[in-house]
Write a structure and sequence with these properties.
The complex is a heterodimer of chains A (about 120) and B (about 110).
Chain A (H helix, E strand, L loop, with lengths): L4 E3 L2 E4 L5 E6 L6 E8 L3 E9 L2 E5 L6 E5 L5 E5 L8 E8 L13 E2 L3 E5 L1
Parallel strand pairs in A: 2-11
Antiparallel strand pairs in A: 1-3, 3-8, 4-5, 4-9, 5-6, 7-8, 9-10, 9-11
Chain B lengths: L2 E3 L4 E5 L4 E3 L2 E3 L4 E8 L6 E5 L10 E2 L10 E3 L8 E9 L5 E3 L3 E6 L1
Parallel strand pairs in B: 2-11
Antiparallel strand pairs in B: 1-4, 3-8, 5-6, 5-9, 7-8, 9-10, 9-11
Classes of the chains: A mainly beta (about 120), B mainly beta (about 110).
Amino acid sequence: KAGVTQTPRYLIKTRGQQVTLSCSPISGHRSVSWYQQTPGQGLQFLFEYFSETQRNKGNFPGRFSGRQFSNSRSEMNVSTLELGDSALYLCASSLGGDRGLVGTGELFFGEGSRLTVL
Amino acid sequence: AQRVTQPEKLLSVFKGAPVELKCNYSYSGSPELFWYVQYSRQRLQLLLRHISRESIKGFTADLNKGETSFHLKKPFAQEEDSAMYYCVLRMRNFNKFYFGSGTKLNVKP
């Protein structure tokens, strides 16, 4: 089974620009969640999508958004980039459960997209 | 608010010594606790979950609700245990995870 794939792996942007990151989950996984990892704040939950709907959301400003497609692939977008958005963005997929269930809690992570904002 | 605290950034032990990675959490509800591990040049992956009450690679962790702790233990550390370990809390019935800041375990030969 192919693992979680994130693209691009590295990118450099300037302040004020926007960026879109992509995540392809493991086949059959319907839940995709996104995390921001920085040296100062560690791993922070951004949001989770399940069956094309945002099911959970972290405490990030509205500049951070995401979506999920019918094939479970997900994208996240950051608009009006700030220097502080420089981070490793990790995507994780899981079975996610159904009918109010949330699954076993085993997340399968991608290698991440490293964003540098200049 | 939910919070996971791992007080040690770095823990160094010699091979064969016991190891305990500390984790404390704050959550008013009934939590689910996990340990995730990241070995060098590998992806973050699940090590164990409290609900399974299992031993993985010799590691165990017991959820102590009274002390709100979920410490990870292994009686005899091996060099291949060297990695970054994250304690993780999930709110029950939500697929939303809170990560601790991580502890880097270094097992010396």
